[in-house]
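Following up on my earlier message about arginine. Here are the inputs again, as you asked, copied directly from the submission form:
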Amino acid sequence: MESPITSSNYPPSISTNSPLTIRDELKSRLKKALVKSSFPEEIADISSATVAKFGDYQSHVAMVLAKRLGENPRTIARQILAHLHVSDMSAPPDVAGAGFLNFRILDQYLADRITQVTQDSRMGVPLASPRKRIVVDFSSPNVAKPMHVGHIRSTVLGDALVRIARFLGHDVITDNHIGDWGTQFGKVIYGWKHFLDPDDLAREPVEELVRLYRKTNQLGNEDPAIARQAREELVLLQRGDPENLVIWKQTVELSWKAFESVYKILDVHFTHCLGESFYNQSLSPLVEHLLATEVAQPSEGAICIFFPEIPELADKPCMIRKSDGGFLYATTDLATLEYRIKTWNPDTIWYVTGAPQALHFQQIFAIARRLGISAELVHIAFGNILREDRKMMKTREGENVSLATLLNEAIERAAKILTEKNPSLPLEEQEKIAHAIGIGAVKYAEFSQHRLTDYVFSWDKMLSFQGNTAPYLQNAYVRIRSIFRKSDEIPKLSSVHLDLPEERALALRLLQFGETVPIVLEEFRPNLLANYLFELANSFHSFYEKCPVLRAEEGVRESRLTLCNLSARVLAEGLSLLGIQVPERM
Ligand code: ARG
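Thanks, got it. Here's what our run produced:
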């Protein structure tokens, strides 16, 4: 297929590298203290305190060491403390409970950090080191089938991971591995030749293609002769029959147009869209090569790869050529992998695909290791979307809710809520805001829990202005911006005062943005960033309730405006890393 190449629209704004985050600074001090106490430095650990009254950060290192050495953790903790120099940043750390080290950061240190981060275009988020080249395989819908709500998880999750990786400075190549070659085409082509409705095709192309597929399928079940003819159409296509190739090409183009309109609504872009068909010519030589090198073996007429050395796969061989000569999903994925390694030489490849494909990727990755491919390969899996009755959104008959319909409904519902809340908005602005809220809400539903958790698709929940939702976070941003509309005052950089507990809590939270973004990629969990933003919005609301901003005396006002401004910037940047826009009003 023609590969529409779109360049990414979000280059990372790389400034000079930011200073260490507070957590990393504490960690590096702790490492030094461990070395001086003759303990291994790699076990240094610092995490945010779980309970605020114990301080801001804590370390379990003494407990871990004590267990290893069979000694008293509190004794070890005191030994480490004797060598730990943090007086410029923390109150004297104390040993608590079973041997925790607790740190309470000095107010002045927090204030200085806020001043620093305010001037940093990365808002304290350090660049990744080492910088990696990452290929991300995501979205990857199938031709002649509608893109369904299941594909939304891959698209939205993949896009957020890509944005975050780019922001951290990684070199990211995105590749939409469209399912544009497969057994469905025999049925689609048979249907095209026998009962295509050109008017329907012009009006709703994907729906018509799906109808052709389903009707042939149904007729084939009743009449084996039709099933045979459909298979013959597939063989003809695979042999390069010109008429069938023309039909196939049209189905790909029509489907691609439908996908593109969804990507446009979602603001998702790909560097490459090399579909399965791109690898057609490589499949046969690949299988021959795997046979010749004895990676694959003939088995009952088919060609398979066996994994006797891997217990979970010992009785699960991977078939790469059927006895009738046909190739499989796995064959294409091996050819794809080979191409990506050869062409882009990545350090790592991420496959953002549903959990049911776990076995498939386990096999592909095992074969890759056997072929000596050293790039790190990761299957980033996710669960299902459920209806409010907790049944699968995708039914067995394949009557999927179409993604485009769903996204448009999101925008319409947001527009309705908006008209109720703010009837005076000009229509054009209202449309833009409804788009940001509606699409933001659908995307955020993906991030408000762990990716492997099934989640219930509930309009009322995701569009609510309360709770862990996109509208709540967007509204927090809008409220902050409205302070500036009232004041007209861009906060001049002033010394920051953190006298009230709510000011201090907000400052600490803001400084943790730089600690949160990188850990998203440790286990591919954008929900950690979403949770952070939710907590930030809560900290902001508490601050705003207790700390008057515009009515505050001079000096305090500028300091609070600085906190407000940074809160708005972090909320906007954080949401944009999740692919969510913030309106200026709502
Ligand atoms: N088209 C596939 C599907 O819809 C997903 C492809 C994922 N990527 C891959 N390289 N296998 O299930």
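One observation from looking it over: The first strand starts at residue 47 and ends at 48. Hope that helps, and feel free to reply on this thread.
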